[in-house]
Amino acid sequence: MAEILESKNFIHAFIEEDIAEGGQFAGQTVHTRFPPEPNGYLHIGHCKALTIDFGTALKFGGICNLRMDDTNPAKEDTEYVEAIQEDIHWLGFDWGDRFFYGSDYFEKTYEYAEELIQKGLAYVCELTPEQFKEYRGDLTHPAVSPYRNRPMEESLDLFRRMRAGEFPDNKYTLRAKIDLTSGNFNMRDPVLYRIRHVEHHRQGTKWCIYPMYDFAHPIQDALEGITHSLCSLEFENHRPLYNWVVEHVSVPHHPPQIEFARLGIDHTVLSKRKLRQLVEEGRVSGWDDPRMPTLCGLRRRGYTPASIRNFCERIGVAKTPNTVEYAFLEHCLRDDLNETATRVMAVIDPVKLTVTNYPEGQTETFQVENNPVNPDAGTRPVTFSRELWIERQDFMEEKVGKFFRLFPGNEVRLKGAYVVKCTGCVKDEAGNVVEVLCTYDPDSRGGDPADGRKVKSTIHWVDAENCRDAEVRLYDNLFDDPDPDAAGKDFLACLNPNSLEIRQGCKVEASLAHTQPADRFQFLRQGYFCADSKDSSPDHLVFNRAVSLKDSYKPGK
Ligand code: ATP
Ligand code: MG
Fold this sequence. Notes:
- By secondary structure, the chain is of the alpha/beta class.
- The protein contains 13 helices and 27 strands.
- The chain has helices spanning 2-6, 10-20, 44-59, 78-91, 106-118, 129-134, 152-163, 213-223, 239-248, 272-280, 295-301, 305-315, 326-340, and strands at 31-34, 63-68, 99-101, 122-125, 173-176, 191-195, 209-211, 229-232, 257-260, 263-265, 322-324, 342-344, 346-347, 350-355, 363-369, 379-385, 387-391, 411-414, 419-427, 433-441, 458-459, 462-463, 467-475, 500-509, 520-523, 527-531, 541-548.
- The strands form seven sheets. A seven-stranded mixed beta sheet has the order 12-25-26-27-23-24-13, covered by helices on one side. Strands 21-18-19-20-14-17-22 form a seven-stranded mixed beta sheet, with no helix packed on it.
- 41% of the residues are buried.
- Adenosine-5'-triphosphate (ATP) is lined by residues 35-37, 45-46, 48-49, 69, 231-232, 262-263, 270-272.
């Protein structure tokens, strides 16, 4: 763990050095941005970017813009815009009044394109998309661009007519005149604008030419006065083009682009396209299915903002791509819920336990601790009577192996109440155990026998006279293959058919009757659970298992 905690955030180091050495940004407010494309919900990978963008601004007393990257007209949706805002706020970050759309800069971007044409740095090309590919060249051959020397006036006229809608899709493109021999193919006269007669979700039919991301993004950053354009590693090869754009158009700022490695997590996919496919094909119940690595899915599952932020801090920021274990995300959740979640008793696979020497009709109340690791969490009353529920697996008619719980003749402690001794069981005609029988030791009130004898096991229980029924949803990895996101792999074939198990008729202690959506608990011995924010109600309690108690994360693995 130490190595993770101490991993250096090279972005912070870069900014610190720059300031210390009186560099480009000394004396300036650090100004970052988070630029999601509103074509899906945010996932845990975006949380890494969010933590870097907003976190860097926070660390240096700066500001961070939220900018919807809606440059590409086809796929955007206001549903996503609202969900992205909600998720970022939930995580605890705020952009203040600095909320923007990339499309707000279309007019400016167009002007800069004309500027490049007028400077002789861009030209209208009429290669078809197929020809464009064919003429791209390779490492030993430069690209070929037959329209490169089109006179400036002609390009300007064609470009204006492209905007006016005179031409069909793909008839012309606007290309930057950079370097047809460059070893970086992004610099081989990249396309800046293309014709697409598509309606834009905010601009309507105003535009039929749209800028490419590589041209639009640096301009947007520069116009917003971004001081550090932080992005993931796949843009590294695009950095020379980013710099070329801000240097050659008359923008007011020249932000540097700094790349960091994308987050990958095992047993899941982190691509909006794949996540959307899971939703659209009904493989999951929606973007907020508790098995999804989306923020809304993790939230519904029971993840807290603190646990996710902590996870993102602890995985660090580096330049080398790495895959983090899902188990580490779970580890971070346990760390948080261990401090904050109320301990309660719930029986997921119930069988009746009758305390035969306990008077019928009698009930007594125990005060139990809400959270032993948090002394301020207080206590709550739990009732005890003759009939209780226990887990079916805490009883064995015949002891096998190292089983120290209930079997005839053995004693166990009922958590916080009494020591009981198993005396037998009742079976139905099919031979199934329908009731376990025991006697209690009245001199063990609170759980320990007065005579000091040792009782090995403690089990949880629920008072059958005073409890609630509940539905419990037990989740496992959505994919049983550790790397479903690998290139070329059929990720749908990697789905875990047992990722959701629904248990009805579970018994939970009465204190859970007034559970509010999203309340989180530790069910003793079972894990951390969260009331389902969509389906749980006082009439039908539904709990999602956020994470089991067993920690499979091994530091330093
Ligand atoms: P996806 O492949 O899921 O569609 P994307 O990069 O196209 O991801 P954007 O909405 O463009 O999605 O992402 C917004 C920001 O989040 C970008 O700066 C991007 O670099 C960053 N980001 C996306 N996925 C990850 C990830 N797995 N790890 C770190 N940063 C990410
Ligand atoms: Mg993107």
